[in-house]
Amino acid sequence: MDKRVALRQSIRAKRQQLSRTEQINASNLLTQRLVSHNKIHSATKIALYLANDGELELMLFIKWCWQQGKQVYLPVLHPFCSGHLLFLLFEENSTMIDNHYGISEPKLDVSKVCPLKQLDIIFTPLVAFDSTGARLGMGGGFYDRTLANWQAQHNLYPIGLAHDCQQVKKIPNQSWDIPLPEIITPNQRIICN
Ligand SMILES: Nc1ncnc2c1ncn2[C@@H]1O[C@H](COP(=O)(O)OP(=O)(O)OP(=O)(O)O)[C@@H](O)[C@H]1O
Ligand SMILES: [Mg+2]
Asked: Residues with beta carbon inside 6 Å of ligand 1?
């Protein structure tokens, strides 16, 4: 467990130290990759996240999705099912609030919730990853719970997003960690397994 704690600290520090210019370049490169990706082209409902803690910024990609008429969803902490996420429609005029972790999320409105099985793509944030698709998150287990059994959800396809500097040789993974089938960085597309 200590290994995971230490890895989280060191990789989070790395991405937090990226300069504004490095972040903008990374976001531009990533967006170019995403908009020419077959699965993303054909997707209509895409879950993603708003960057926090030095994560890859997705606003440029989100704007492209809106222009293409795709529906974009953001994770929202479940109001009573602790440790679980809901995915809410995110539009230009969505009312946003800061959640318990200080992360901006759409204000809860049940009419805007999308069941997991209706999503086409779920872009998954992560702290560190390896070439097998193993991921280490921020430590809440939120995405492990969300992605448990993702293959059984109709069309759902998870894709991890990260800066290249977040790649490590081997993630010390645990039994509950859900590996990703694909990870995209500004400079690589990794198809896992
Ligand atoms: N499917 C699950 N059901 C119940 N508890 C789970 C499940 N998956 C993970 N957990 C619990 O969540 C906690 C945090 O897990 P972990 O350290 O893997 O988080 P993480 O993958 O870094 O975070 P996240 O998924 O939010 O990015 C662990 O105590 C783990 O037991
Ligand atoms: Mg995990």
From this structure: 136-145, 148, 174, 176-177
Q: List, in sequence order, the alpha helices (H) in the chain.
A: 2-16, 20-35, 38-42, 59-67, 142-147
Nearest ligand 1 atom to the CA of 146 is 1
* Spatial distance between the Cα atoms of 111 and 118, rounded to a whole number of angstroms: 14
pTM: 0.97
Give residue 1's pLDDT band: very low, low, confident or very high (50, 70, 90): low
- Protein fold of 2-191: Rossmann fold (3.40.50)
**Residue extents of the structural domains in the chain:** 2-191
Ligand 2 is an ion; residues with CB less than 5 A from it: 144, 177
Averaged pLDDT, 20-42: 97
Confidence (pLDDT) at 154: 83
Over residues 117-143, the pLDDT tens digits come to: 999 999 999 999 999 999 999 999 999
Ligand 2 centroid – CA 67 distance (Å): 33
